[in-house]
Specification:
165 residues, single chain, alpha+beta, four-stranded antiparallel beta sheet
């Protein structure tokens, strides 16, 4: 359907004011008695060279600012290697909580959540190559060596219990 120059100008003005294609479709019907399908409106907008304004995305609620962590005096992980030969019961002495996901995260063989003894939560996964990943909720967080050892032991026991090892 051909539109007059006035109708084309109205469509351009509506789009400049932030109207969606659906709004243009309704306005054409209400003001000019022109019934077009949604696809016809899309083609019309392309034909006249107008652009649809993107709606601004809603801003997410700003998280409460957390105090910055104290500057590390020394990296506790620099020369430390964690081995699986920890004393039995280490995992129980730490207040660590670990769970496995019922639905595994994409790209992972097994995944879950962990809450360390200081209350910091993190997501963990092991991918199909056996690579381990830990994503804490607090950027830059590093668990204490005792927490990491307890996590390894608890994870090993939990994976065995579920038949992964």
């Amino acid at each position: 359907m051909e539109l007059t120059e006035q109708q084309r100008q109205s469509v351009t003005e509506w789009l400049a004011a932030g109207a969606s294609l659906s709004d243009v479709q309704k306005n054409l019907k209400n003001e000019f008695g022109i019934t077009l399908t949604y696809m016809d409106v899309r083609l019309l907008v392309l034909e006249i060279g107008a652009t649809v304004q993107d709606k601004p995305e809603p801003k997410p609620a700003e998280p409460k600012p957390q105090p910055p962590p104290p500057p590390p005096e020394d990296d506790p992980y620099a020369d430390e290697a964690f081995d699986d030969a920890a004393a039995p019961g280490d995992a129980q002495t730490s207040k660590l909580s670990l769970s496995l996901d019922r639905v595994v995260r994409p790209g992972a063989m097994v995944s879950g959540d962990v809450t360390f003894s200081d209350g910091t939560k993190a997501r963990w996964l092991i991918d199909q190559y056996g690579c381990f990943g830990l994503e804490p909720e607090t950027p830059g967080y590093r668990p204490s060596p005792a927490d990491m050892q307890a996590f390894q032991n608890t994870l090993r026991d939990e994976l065995r219990r579920h038949g992964y090892a």
